[in-house]
Amino acid sequence: MLMFLNKGGVILWIILFLAFVATVIVVERLIFFRKIRTDEEKMLIRLKSALVKGHFDEALSICEANPSPIANLMRIGIEHREYPEERIKDTVVGAANMEIPHLERYLSALGTIANIATLLGLLGTVTGNIRSFGVLGTVGAVGDPTLLARGIAEALITTAAGLIVSIPTIIFYNYLVNRVNHTIIRLENRVTELVLILVKSSGG
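Above: the chain sequence. Below: its structure as C-alpha cells.
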C-alpha cells in the first residue's frame, strides 16, 4: 500500500488529505441535518402546545433547551410578540437570514475540494508524463524500464485518485445543497405557521 502511495508522489498524498477533509465535512453535515430534523419534530409539538395555551415563558424555555434554527427563530418571535404581526414576521425573516450561513457551513469548502481534486489529478498526469518524457530524453535511461514506468504510474494513479475523490464529493455536495434548500423552505413554512399561532395567542 505504501509503495502504491509513493508511486503517486506528493500530489497523491494531497488528494488523499483532501479526501479525508471531504469525508469529515460530509459526515458532520449529515449528522447536523439529521439532528436538527429529529429535535425539531419533538420540539414543535411541545412548542405549539405552549403557545396555544399562552405559556410564553415555557415556550422560551423549550426554545433555549433545544438549540436549532427553528428554535432560534421562534425564540425571537416570542420575544417580539407584543409587536404587530408584520413587525414580528420582518424580525423573524431577518433572523432567518442569519441562520442560512449555519446551514451552509463548510459547503463551499466541499465544492472547492471536488474541483481541486480533479485538477490535482490532471496535474499529476502532467508531471508524470513530464517525468516519463524526461526519462526518454536521457541518454541510456531507456534501458531501465522502471524509470519510465514510475512516471507513467504517477500519471495514471493521480488521475484515478482525483476522479475517485471528486465524483462522490460532487454528489454529496449537490445533495447537501438540496438539503439546505429544503430546510430553508421548511423553516419558512414552520415559522409562518407558528407566527400565526403566536399572534392569536398574544391577542394580536
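The chain is about 90% helix and 0% strand.
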